[in-house]
Amino acid sequence: MKKIGVIFGGASTEHDVSIVSGASVIKNLNKDHYTVEKIYISKEGEWYICHDSIEELEKLQVGETVKNIEKLVNPIEELKKYDCIFPVLHGLYGEDGSIQGLLEILNIPYVGCHILASSICMDKAYTKVILEKAKIKQAKYVYIQAYENETYYYVTEEYTKKKMSLAQIMQEVEKTLSYPMFIKPCNSGSSVGVTKAENIEELEKAILIAAKYDVKILIEQEVKGKEVECAVLGNENPKASCIGEVLSAEDFYTFDSKYHNQQSRTQIPANLPEDISEKIRNIAVKAFEVVDAKGLARVDFFVEEKSNEIILNEINTMPGFTQISMYPKLWEASGITYTELLDELIHLAMQIHK
User: Fold this and answer.
1) Position 275 pLDDT exceeds 70
2) Per-residue exposure over 66-90, b if at least 16 CB sit within 10 Å of its own CB, e if not
3) Which of 187, 221, 255 is the last residue of a domain?
4) Where are the alpha helices (DSSP H) in the chain?
5) Is residue 57 over pLDDT 80?
């Protein structure tokens, strides 16, 4: 049997979501095919082997003590013991190419996108640049940078930086975009640090919030319409799932509405004409290939309410894997069970490693 190491937790803002995703993956891995070890990374970046039950592991979310946990003195030597690593890590240090680079150096097969796609897709501004080259439609946006001591830069379409005050930045934003706008840290996931602004006062507050999470900040024009998602699976010949629609209980799909508000729900398949769904699948696969993704990704879109125009929002290279997460649910609706999906992801990891 193959020995699989499932890594979860991590030193990002998505630490707690990663614990739930990791526990779900561990629960659904085929124990007839694999021996599974649970590798936890704390918020402080310390590595542990967990010998407790999955239910016990979920206590880590709220900072409770887990008894049967062993701190790893040498995580690198531990990683070398595995046939394949499943890094169920979201956000910085897990989804940005960091853990992928470590595993590449150690020559260990691992599930998911490699260094290039992970780093591109983690940074929302640079994802925009790559997808623009491929002529994939995206929301209109402005890119700024916010440093300490109230130092701000407006980054032009030619990617030259102009130093400005925050007031000047906001004036430039208003020349390009109209309200409402969404303000996002470039390197954050699960909608952490994302705020909607309806006026200049809210825009200023939103920029200051986003700056707490990242120097790079993306400001996007709101797109009115359906929010839909498509799961992509594969290496050289990726395939796309059916389309799912996000029905948020709040004004937009915030962290709380994703994970804490039970009135938020998803509709699978999405209520869309088949020709629109097929276009979304084709664009999802194209985007997957443009960023050189491997294994898996979830590609998120808007479908404008008046024109039915398809606008790509984000590419997630390690999407949520909880029982309610869209990625496994989309494949289940497309005929692949959760356990079969995990088998295929490990197979793809071993295949690309060869």
Assistant:
1) yes
2) beebeebeebeebbeebbbbbbbbb
3) 221
4) 15-28, 54-57, 75-79, 98-105, 115-122, 124-133, 166-176, 200-211, 255-259, 274-290, 326-333, 338-353
5) no
Residues 164 and 128 in one domain: no
Structure token pair of residue 218: 């993306």
Provide the 3-class DSSP secondary structure of residue 171.
helix
Containing structural domain, residue 17: 2-110
Least reliable range by pLDDT among 50-64, 75-89, 237-251, 262-276: 50-64
| CA 125/CA 188 separation, integer angstroms | 12
The dihedral of CA 219, 195, 224, 333: what is its sign? positive
Which position has the higher pLDDT, 157 or 298?
Answer: 298
- Of 177, 196, 221, the position where a domain reaches its end is 221
Residues 340 and 286 in one domain: yes
* Residue 70 maps to a domain: yes
pLDDT bin (cut points 50, 70, 90) of residue 261 is very low
Can you give the pLDDT at residue 250? 58
* Cβ contact 49:72 at 8 Å: yes
DSSP 49-98: EE-S-HHHHGGGGGT---SSEEE-S-HHHHHTT-SEEEE---STTTSSSH
Expressed in percent and rounded to 5, the helix, strand and coil fractions of the chain are 35, 30, 40
Picking from 210, 287, 218, 281, the residue whose alpha carbon sits closest to that of residue 244 is: 281
The Cβ-side half-sphere exposure at 302, using a 13 Å CA radius, reads: 18
Q: What are phi and psi of 180, to 5 degrees?
A: -75, 155
Q: Are residues 129 and 274 in the same domain?
A: yes
Per the DSSP assignment, residues forming a β-bridge with 219 are: 142, 183
Structurally, the chain folds into a number of domains equal to 3
Q: Can you tell me the mean pLDDT for 72-76? A: 95
Residue-wise DSSP of 279-292: HHHHHHHHHHHHTT
The residues, ordered by sequence, that sit 6+ positions from 63 with a Cβ below 8 Å of its Cβ are none
CATH number at residue 194: 3.30.1490.20
